[in-house]
Amino acid sequence: MKFTDLQKRSLQCLLLFILMLSRAMGQDKGSEEEEGPHFDSPGEAEEFRLLQQKNEFGLIPPNALVTAADQRKAMLAPPAADKLVPSLAGISSASWTWLGPGNIGGRVRSIVVHPTNSNIMWAGSVGGGIWKTTNGGTSWAPLADFMANLAVATLAIDPTNPNVLYAGTGEGFYNADGIQGAGIFKTTDGGTTWTQLSSTTGSEFYYVDRISISPNGATILATTSTGINRSTNGGTTWTQVLTNGTRLTDVTFHPSDSTKAIASGFQHLIFYSTDGGVTWTAPTTGLAAGTGFNGGRVEIAYAIANPSIVYAAYDHASTNSGQLWKSIDGGLNFSLVFTGTWLGTTSSQGWYDNGVWAGDPTNASLVIIGGLDIWRSTNGGTSFTDIGGYVGSIHPDQHTIVPISGYNGTTVKTVFIGNDGGIFKATDITTASASSGWT
Question: 205: which of 172, 183, 350, 429 fits an S-S bond (Cβ 3.0–4.6 Å)?
Fold first, then answer.
């Protein structure tokens, strides 16, 4: 018997419903009477998501979402007049208005602020695609909901042309609910339309955790599940410039020198480059070259006020603690300056939420680190104060720390935080505390 496409889809939905119902009936009835917090089951959620993606033959077709997006574009073209149903003539996607809700945030790992207009920002959701605000974050609207992959882990803006942005997909931090990506997408009109870079459709680009563009706009670096990839033609082609046995999660160019860059990842790895990312070298002494370090994740940042200073936030998994390391020679050597609990105590969570920022152009000693909470140091990392998260008025589990455009350390000191609860703002990062200063 031959089924129509509609019948096949109906049968799939019925089977999924039966599966969910049987699982629900088989659960321990006594669990409803248990007290205390109940955690999600990301494994089951992932299994259900994969079931949704399978076709009637139980397979997930390769590049299916990209094909679906192309079909959707074709459907938007006006059909022939004799194909229109009279009562539906004239109806198109433009006839729909998004109503919301707009006050519910999910996990945000990337925020980009327009370099000259602080009211314009873009946010990358690891499961909900790219969002944009034109009023400084008061309201947000989704962009490109049919972008073929909505697991946006990183965004980068071309410093020479703010209409050009890149979105890396795939949340590669080993969390059970992380969604596989489909490479890198690019926009040249500020986010209205996005195109998948054909050079990034291979498996090596399934997880793109960070993208950085050189100050002169000529070079793009991307950390993927296989190492660091480099492009000098706007993403048309890529060259793998660093291959290692673990996943790199962070890469960033020097704020003013396009020949210098630093990168880091799991298993306490740090690298630096002095030729625009063509070759990479591990530090001579310190975190990456020392002994006794466990396989934790490292996030790094240049101090904008003095780029010779590089801070490295390290998940020291074997002791369930966070460590801040510091270099005063651009990343060639590191020394330990602080050990604390911002990544957890009984079970380190730095593999999942970890970040560091030193972007104040007037004060290289102002350091912000993020893990479970946000912590602030005003003495170059020697000591820190917990200013929000589990102990305060913002959502816990911090992922990204970004300043507003025009941040000057004196009259403009606004910083945005991306975490598991969306985006939060401190209008003065130097005075915000666990009990006040956050929106």
Answer: 183
